[in-house]
Amino acid sequence: MSDLSDFDDDGDEIEDPEVDAVKDEEDDDDDDEDGMKEDDIVQKPLTQEIIANEGCLSLLCKTGNGLAHAYVRLDIKDREITDISCLKVFVHLRYVDLSINSINDLSPLNFLTHLLTIKADKNRLASAKLNELPYLQILNCSENKITGCEGIAHPLLETLNLGGNQLTDLTTLNATKLARLSQLELKANKLTSTAGVHIVELKKLYLADNLITKIEDLGRLRNLMILHLRNNNLSNLDGFTDNLRQLQYLNLRKNDITSFSEVEKLKCLPMLRALILRQNPVCFEEGYRVEVLVLLRRLERLDQDVYLEDERQEAEEVYNARQEMEYQGEGTSNHEVINSEEEDQ
Q1: In the prediction, which pLDDT does 64 show?
Q2: Which of the pair, 125 or 332, is modelled with greater confidence?
Q3: How far apart are CA 183 and CA 200, in angstroms?
Q4: Which whole-number Å values give the CA distances from 211 to 66, 163, 164, 166, 330, in the listed order?
Q5: Distance CA 92, CA 127 (A)
Q6: Which of 51, 64, 114, 184 is a good FRET partner for 93, with 20 to 30 A between their CA atoms?
Q7: For the chain, how big is the Rg over CA atoms in Å?
Q8: 3-state SS record for the chain
Q9: Are 89 and 112 in contact (CB under 8 A)?
Q10: Mean confidence (pLDDT) of the chain
Q11: Which residues have C-beta within 8 Å of that of residue 295, sequence separation ≥ 6?
Q12: pTM of the model
């Protein structure tokens, strides 16, 4: 599994800034909508003059035929741009950063068939719909106004970030067209269920800060290693399955898990090593840490702390004592059945 050093002191996975994912596990102050209506926005289309005069292009590389060179990286981050139609002619671009603008249409990118990375977070997109881009690997459309997953169908896409949008379900997520997707960020939407995620190659799934009440439809995620469900409305843990055979890290912080009987339902996860349950009612129960370890004996870390040897010994003693009591109870029950049968004779 991932080394436990991959998780910070709060028990949450340390983030990878390279993919610009919105995965902060601390309670932070989200950037509020600026409240501006579309009519109030000053139109500022991107022009070739802006691109040239503001040094927006970089990374000179050979083009496909190897006989010419072109800049392949474009950065127009935080320039109040509202329209990117002029990008249609920049067909050699591979990396574009459109973050923190007022763009509401990505369709000009359909002409850029060599794209590897698109960063379009913090714009005014209602959709992430694009034609199939054959080489696209990273797409970040977080913190927009996206309501569905239509038109996200890129065969080599590995990382998709739709956090901070207005998704209510995942029925339009096209697993067939996202066969290579390994990381899916859906934090801070309006999801009420996990249903709709059928992407077999998925390794990391981030669903924090939604309205989820049900764990559903995760049975196909046999390669999933990390699952974040922090700050949802889960009161039970039905829906987990042993098909999640690679799941190592599970964050359930700030839900409504009240009993150890719910925690026990995680026994079906054979590779679970790190579990975050902080800010659930169950974590205030007496003997919380030891009881969780009795139920989930392979666990290495609970919340921010790795289990110590004395905790393991105590949990082992409790487990063995319960096994002995259960064995004796079964023996007594069997003896009573035998005596009852003899009396009937």
Answers
A1: 75
A2: 125
A3: 11
A4: 51, 14, 13, 12, 43
A5: 24
A6: 184
A7: 25
A8: CCCHHHECCCCCECCCHHHCCCCCCCCCCCCCCCCCCHHHCCCCECCHHHHHHCCCEEEEEECCCCCCEEEEEEECCCCCCCECHHHHHCCCCCEEECCCCCCCCCHHHHHCCCCCEEECCCCCCCCCCCCCCCCCCEEECCCCCCCCCCCCCCCCCCEEECCCCCCCCCCCCCCHHHCCCCEEECCCCCCCECCCCCCCCCCEEECCCCCCCECCCCCCCCCCCEEECCCCCCCCCCCCCCCCCCCCEEECCCCCCCCHHHHHHHHHCCCCCEEECCCCHHHHCCCHHHHHHHHCCCCCEECCEECCHHHHHHHHHHHHHHHHHHHHHHHHHHHHHHHHHHHHC
A9: no
A10: 89
A11: 260, 263, 264, 266, 267
A12: 0.86
Please give the Cα distance from 81 to 98 (Å, whole number). 8
Residue whose tokens read 């249409």: 105
pLDDT tens per residue across span 272-329: 999 999 999 999 999 999 999 999 999 999 999 999 999 999 999 999 999 999 888 7
Residue 3: its pLDDT value, please?
Answer: 58
